[in-house]
Design goal:
By secondary structure, the protein is mainly beta. Helix content is 3%, strand content 52%.
């Protein structure tokens, strides 16, 4: 059920082990973030007409961190979730518990006075995009996620569409394509998973430049286990330049196969899953000055597939702004769009938009009750070309608590 809702823990405190004072080269820390959400939306009734529009969920994430000497460290993120907690969960009326290991890796950090190198191996966040770095509930000023990290498409990684008609004849949600793969209906794929991928990564920062290069098993659109590395090893990379203090511009990309390995039996003769990759290109910007901070991303994805002469593509973008009104109170907003593009198949059929466009507009306010507790409230206008009215809008209230259950340093 991992595609049902993003459950990737943020990378806040990621380099905390490496940043410990040099005279305390061994230590253990256990930051914890706990959130409870109350939600009101008519989305639930589209899945089960008897459902109440009022629901709620729970999420707890623990971030065990070990400092293993002057250079080595280990990090993990483990989540317990009761759905629906995220806004996207409310497209489903059922309640379920999930326990997931979101990240788990060992790292090595090396420094000079002006540069830092970090190497990691294990389950990692994707090097593509910038939002995953701010995904912790206490760090995300709103309650929802940008569309490319949450919205499913009318494509699946475990089925092959016969052509344009497969994509345009069905709505978002449960998807069935007819030319091979797992039988029946299931969720479509999400362009960028907020779950970790097994792999290795190198990072560099210094002289206003930051860069990262990653080799993983599976695509950001379809993470896979290490057992598939031989077929699915692929790359993702990103980097940025800080033009002025508080103003950074970045770029990232990925490319590699996304179709499940067992689909080989339905592929054209002489081809493999590597002949049908998913690729992504993204640009991101962050700016902060005084009481204001603004960030945004533009991304383009393409999903090569048998039977298509023009592969389905998607453009997604968002802009987010936050204004701190007092030391304890802020307001924030995010506007995002997802536009499926052209597609053409071998029969000659084509479409200028293989699925309806989506717009998401969220306005929120947050109040820090104390240094450990934040209460957020937000309202989201969710607009799909094929769904008029306010049925998919969501009103949410969330209480977030952060604390360190353990924090010890050793000589």
């Amino acid at each position: 059920m991992l595609t049902r809702a993003p459950a990737f823990a943020a990378l806040c405190l990621l380099l905390a082990p490496a940043a410990r004072p040099q005279d305390s080269t061994y230590g253990i820390s256990l930051p914890v973030t706990i959130g409870g959400a109350a939600l009101y939306t008519d989305r639930l009734q589209s899945d089960d007409p008897t459902s109440s529009p009022v629901t709620g969920g729970f999420r707890a994430v623990v971030y065990p961190t070990l400092q293993l000497g002057a250079h080595w460290f280990a990090y993990a993120a483990v989540q317990l979730e009761y759905t629906p907690y995220f806004y996207y969960d409310t497209f489903y009326a059922d309640h379920d518990w999930y326990l997931d290991t979101l990240q788990a890796f060992i790292g090595y950090a090396a420094r000079t006075p002006e540069t830092t190198w970090v190497f990691k191996a294990g389950r990692l966040s994707s090097a593509f995009g910038s939002f995953p770095l701010h995904y912790d509930d206490a760090d995300n000023p709103l309650m929802d996620q940008p569309l490319s990290y949450a919205q499913t498409l009318t494509l699946r990684h475990d089925q092959i569409p016969c052509g344009v008609a497969d994509l345009t004849s069905q709505a978002y949600g449960w998807i069935r394509n007819r030319c091979g793969g797992v039988p029946g209906w299931d969720d479509g794929l999400t362009p960028v998973s907020l779950y970790g991928l097994p792999g290795i990564q190198a990072e560099f920062s210094g002289h206003r430049v930051d860069a990262r290069f990653q080799v993983t098993s599976g695509s950001p659109s379809n993470p896979l286990s290490l057992s598939h590395t031989a077929e699915y090893a692929q790359w993702a990379a990103g980097g940025g330049y800080t033009i002025l203090q508080g103003f950074r511009v970045g770029v990232s990309g990925f490319r590699g196969p996304y179709l499940d390995p067992f689909l080989a039996a339905w592929l054209p003769a002489g081809t493999t899953v590597r002949d049908f990759p998913a690729s992504g290109l993204g640009v991101d910007v962050q700016w902060a000055r005084g009481h204001w901070s603004v960030s945004g991303e533009w991304q383009r994805f393409q999903f090569d597939s048998p039977n298509f002469t023009t592969a389905p593509s998607v453009i997604s973008s968002y802009v987010e702004a936050k204004r701190t009104l007092t030391p304890r109170f802020y307001v924030a907003g995010r506007a995002g769009w997802l536009h499926p593009g052209r597609a053409a198949d071998a029969s000659g059929a084509s479409t200028s938009e293989f699925a309806p466009g989506i717009g998401s507009y969220e306005l929120a306010g947050g109040w820090w009750l104390n240094r450990h507790q934040l209460i957020k409230a937000s309202y989201e206008w969710f607009k799909t070309e094929s769904v008029p009215g306010a049925r998919d809008n969501v009103l949410g209230v969330e209480l977030v608590t952060t604390f360190r259950a353990l924090d010890r340093a050793f000589r």
